[in-house]
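S., here's the first fold you wanted:
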Amino acid sequence: VESSELIKYASNAFLATKITFINEVAELCDRLGADVHHVAKGMGLDKRIGPKFLHPGPGYGGSCFPKDTQALTDIARTAGRPFEIVETVISVNDDIKNNAFERVKTAMGGDVAGKLVAVLGLSFKPETDDMRDSPSIPLIEALVQGGARVRAFDPEAMDNARRHLPDAVEYCGDSYDAVDEADALIIVTEWNQFRSLHMDRIRTALKQPILVDLRNIYDPHRMKEQG
């Protein structure tokens, strides 16, 4: 029984570690001018590592990884052998989630007060309405606390989101309603329909041409070419 329980916790903690590792690599890439997609692909070609769970984003969430990493560290401390790697993963993941707001604020000139921000994607991952520990929660809370208006759209999670997000959030019927006259667009969840947005239409609808793609689904050079 002990081995079975530990398999479950250790497996999810290892995957959470892999996600957090590539997220830190992504932040280093930003500072060094490297392309995290190229780095992740190169890493994934090594069969000892593999390509899965090397997709940078604004931190892991959901029902399994936060719960199981915390459970494993609690069990380890009770056993008198703290699991320091996983404890660090939990801490770094929290930092990455919180850093998402700083990235948005920087993109918007250092201040979000009085600005209208469009957020696409609320659930912690695509194809679910699950809001548990979603990266969208601390981001939107920080935006509202910073004085921004937030207009959001998610294909499935908006009903659940109302129980987790500030009352001030405005919910929209589709992506383009959310973006209309907004000062910036933030992509938080990589739903397939957000991968094929009509960028000319987005550019025209935005008050300012600011796109913060927290899921790295668009090529930044191509986005610059499109304004």
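And the second, which I think is the more interesting of the pair:
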Amino acid sequence: METLSIAERFDHLRLILSSERFLKMQVLANEVPFFICPYAAEDAVAMQKLIQQLTRRLQQDGVQVLPLDLYDVAVEILQQRGIWDRILQIEATTPKEKFIELLQNVLDPKAHLVNTMAEKMTAATYDVLFLTGVGEVYPYLQAHNVLHNLQRVAKDRPTLMFFPGTYRHTPALGASLKLFNRLEDHRYYRATNIFDIEP
């Protein structure tokens, strides 16, 4: 992945995501249809453009994408619970650890976040789920925890998480999920690096 240009990444992703093998989940060695698209944090702006262009191109190819931004979903939950304005007011004066703990409780993936995501998934017609906003919600939401809890509601169609960091999964070393290529986001073993899939 590190050696691929943005254009080459686009071509690889389009080829894989529009293939019948991928859409029917025949490329999997495991039972959970989760894929990770790692990218360097400094490529964030270019990757945002790539995701938008890829979504449009896939739709032209007849592949419906459901984009879910974790930050947007988090804000929506806080607004629905009537505490968004309060969160904004106390952020500057609340100790960081306490503030993070508050957000972790309110946005807990098992109790709240994934349920909201499931509602959006049920209401939509789509072939592939795109998850973005991973870096924006750290540390109160962490990728491994989101994926772990998403397993119960996202088994029927592929999910692709765009991850600003590295993800490697080898038999010898196990899984390594590193946000911004610096912060260990715990180990998550059940996803496949999308760049490890051959066209």
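Why I say that: The chain has a mean pLDDT of 88. Residues 44-60 form the longest helix (17 residues).

Talk tomorrow,
H.
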